Amino acid sequence: MTRQALRAVIPDRTHTMRRQECRRGTREFVRHESGFTLVELLISVVLVALISTGMLFAMRSALITYTKTDDRLQSNRRVMSVERILSRELGGVMPVIGNCADNSTLAVFNGNAQTLHLVTSYSITEGARGYPRVVELQVLSDGAGGLRLIANEFLYTGPYATAPLCSGGAFRPGIATPQSFVLADRLAYCVISYQNYDPNTRMATNWQPMWTAPNLPAAVHVAMAPLIPDPARLPLVSVTTPIHINRDVNATYNDAP
User: Which of 198, 168, 187 shows the shortest CA–CA distance to 225?
Assistant: First the structure.
């Protein structure tokens, strides 16, 4: 048999070994390509961390924006509530006589530029008209360079309900307690004034800084302004409430026959 025929029948051993080595290398290459290297894993971790950080910053910005918007809305609601509460309290005033701790008597509607006492049919506690309440409005310092307007409310059960609040025919200034309602704070000023009423002409006249007359005034004006104006919030405005009751609380009425 010739050498060429022998080579055709018996494959070259060297060629066969080379083919086997190539196949083994191909399998190892495929097996190597099917996994992840450490560098690729680190890159994946870094990408996930960057995406998570971006999402957290976006959520934080949205939360800050929501908090500012909600704070602004709550502030605007408080401003509108102050105006409504003052209007309803003053509009529901009742002309009554109170007794002090020393048995002296005086008209309960009594006040000056910083303090006002009255009996009203509107209750802050109940949020509506209900049992009569003795209300004490007082302007105090808030301890931060501004003023605040507080309201103390007591159930009115009769003339002696005002006994803890007055002595010697005069009311004491209001005192802040844990039960006090803070109607407005951080104020630059808060002044209460009273419009005089002429019973002869039945006309309202000048404004006064104090009211001790037995009859009720024609209107009450509460002037206030924020300590630091903020154009993004509703400003506290002055409240003027007319009082339609004009009889003298000391007047007596005979029973109808």
Answer: 187
